[in-house]
Write a structure and sequence with these properties.
Strand content: 25-35%
Structural class: alpha/beta
Radius of gyration: 23 Å
Oligomer: single chain
Mean pLDDT: 93
Low-confidence stretches: none
């Protein structure tokens, strides 16, 4: 059982700062509990003996099932009744706005409230050796691989990751060890703290993989994104940074860094990816060279150059920590990837079905190239749903057209829930399809899942590889398509 801890909190409508003692078995309420990070935090608190409950607008698998399994009480809707005097602390997620009924009840109640990063720092990280993974792409895979490598090297790390690590069958774990891995998201923190979450985590080691424009609902342009990551370097002044210099913005930022930086990249950096060999159906072997010109061969069950760089970043971390090289290489080989990241759902009548989380144009292109590497000579069918706050806008309209042209056939869903987005700013699946058809890439669009499944079923033939890309549930297309193909 945990001990009484003293934490800094906010109170009242003006977010006044004070301190409060949180006792063992304290009752903690989480607003926005169905978010990936928030549900993981709920699990970490539950494992420490706290009584946890939470509210959200919608509850959907697999998170709803996980919360039920952990016996965490949940309330649908942000209602004022969710806030009462029996609570000891409230943790506020970044989906919460100040004008919600539950928020107004919280602000007038006098109850202490806190952000997710500060809660993680206070209840979990504390004085641990924390590894934080940051960047636009690859965070979840790198975080899972880092946790697995540390675990195989007998360091028994705790972790909180925005995805399910197949080696652990969970996205979080509380541990009494001195090691912790956290995925550092650049999204904003809370309505009373409009700065990136990643700058608040107390981190000793930071992996910075790349920087591109994303989160158009938070950042207005790439310069705004750059400011956020510059703030990361300023706030994490005592951390050791491991940075990928393939990314122009990362290279620019670290040139003025005051902390120690170890670089890596493709044929550049302190550690360099010099060659890789694809093992169709099995992953790849990557060859890297280091500061003393030593060469290392690493086998990973993940395809694509982007995953080669993801693995290289974790290798650089392992060298910084002076971990046993043989144990590290063995961990790479036994890594089971991340759920929803290039996850093979099965073979249906000779058609291979794969699910991936890709939603940014760069990720879409990388995933499609990976499919071609893993399944040479086979036809690639890309099924894409614009669902993120950025992809639902036409910011990357042309970029998606180029990224999806890597496939042999393209099926694009109309953007998910574009209400509230001006028509002139909306992503257009029809426009994308027209462009691809003109460029000799057969493409189809649909406004509902049944029509989409019908289109795919009519076009798919034995030997095809279908890759479904969405950062949401895609209307349950996975099971519908499995049934249709079978």
């Amino acid at each position: 059982m945990n001990k009484t801890i003293r934490i800094k909190v906010c109170r009242g409508p003006t977010d006044d700062i004070s301190y409060v003692d949180i006792k063992p078995s304290a009752k903690i309420h989480i607003m926005g509990i169905c978010g990936t990070a928030m549900s993981s935090l709920a699990g970490l608190l539950k494992e420490q003996g706290y009584v946890v409950c939470g509210s959200d607008k919608n509850f959907y698998p697999p998170i709803s099932e996980e919360l039920k399994r952990m016996e965490i009480s949940t309330f649908k809707g942000y209602k004022k009744e969710n806030i009462h005097s029996g609570l000891d602390l409230v943790i506020v997620g970044n989906v919460i706005s100040r004008n919600m009924p539950e928020t107004q009840a919280l602000l007038s109640s006098g109850l202490p409230y806190i952000t997710l990063p500060e809660a993680l720092n206070s209840f979990v990280i504390k004085e641990k050796n924390t590894v934080m993974v940051c960047g636009t792409h690859g965070k979840t895979t790198i975080s899972c691989l880092s946790a697995w490598v540390l675990d195989e090297c007998r360091l028994n790390p705790g972790f909180m990751i925005g995805g399910v690590a197949e080696n652990f069958n969970t996205g979080f774990r509380f541990s009494d060890s001195n090691w912790f891995v956290v995925e550092g998201d650049e999204y904003d923190t809370a309505f009373f703290e409009k700065t990136p979450k990643c700058i608040h985590y107390l981190s000793k080691y930071i992996l910075l993989n790349n920087i591109e424009f994303d989160h158009a609902d938070i950042y207005k342009d790439i310069e705004d994104v750059e400011k956020a990551f510059r703030l990361l370097l300023e706030k994490q002044s005592s951390s050791l940074f491991m940075a990928c210099v393939d990314s122009p913005l990362v290279k620019k930022l670290i040139s003025s860094a005051k902390q120690k930086v170890i670089t890596y990249g493709t044929k550049k950096g302190d550690w360099s990816l010099i060659h890789r060999e694809t093992l169709p159906g099995k992953g790849q072997v990557i060859h890297i060279t280091g500061p003393k010109k030593q060469t290392v061969e690493i086998q990973i069950p993940l395809p694509g150059e982007h995953n080669a760089l993801n693995a290289l970043s974790v290798w650089v971390l392992s060298r910084a920590l002076n971990l046993d090289q043989n144990q590290v290489l063995s961990a790479f080989k036994s890594f089971k990837a991340v759920r929803r990241r290039f996850q093979v759902l099965g073979d249906f009548s000779g058609i291979t079905l794969i699910e991936d989380f890709a939603h940014h144009p760069t990720a879409v292109s990388s995933v499609l190239q990976s499919v071609r590497e893993m399944y040479p000579g086979r036809r690639v069918l890309a099924v894409f749903e614009p669902r993120s706050n950025t992809s639902r806008k036409n910011i990357f309209q042309e970029d998606y057209q180029m990224a999806l042209s890597v496939a042999d056939l393209v099926f694009c869903m109309e953007a998910y829930n574009i209400s509230g987005i001006p028509e002139s700013e909306q992503f257009s699946a029809k426009q994308l399809v027209q462009h691809l058809n003109k460029k000799s890439t057969p493409a189809f669009s649909a406004e509902d899942i049944k029509n989409m499944v019908t289109h795919i079923q009519q076009q798919a033939v034995k030997g095809d590889v279908i890759i479904i890309m969405s950062n949401g549930d895609f209307g349950g297309i996975y099971s519908l398509l499995e049934e249709a193909l079978a």
